[in-house]
Design goal:
- The chain has helices spanning 3-12, 16-43, 48-59.
- The protein is built from 3 helices and no strands.
- It is an all-alpha fold and 66 residues long.
Amino acid sequence: MSTVEKIEGEIAGLSPADLVAFRRWFIEFDAIAWDRQFETDAIGGKLDALAERALKDHTSGRSTEF
């Protein structure tokens, strides 16, 4: 049995109150992990091409204001 399968089994056995607490914790945990990955990608230049394309599209009039 894999670690993920073990965790899935533990989660499935949580009480409703514990499941609510777990969901709240995981949402925050996941958001922090996503922010870290986004920051790492930005610092590493992985988003540069997207930014350049967006700026080019904007200066060419292919964007709209919010």
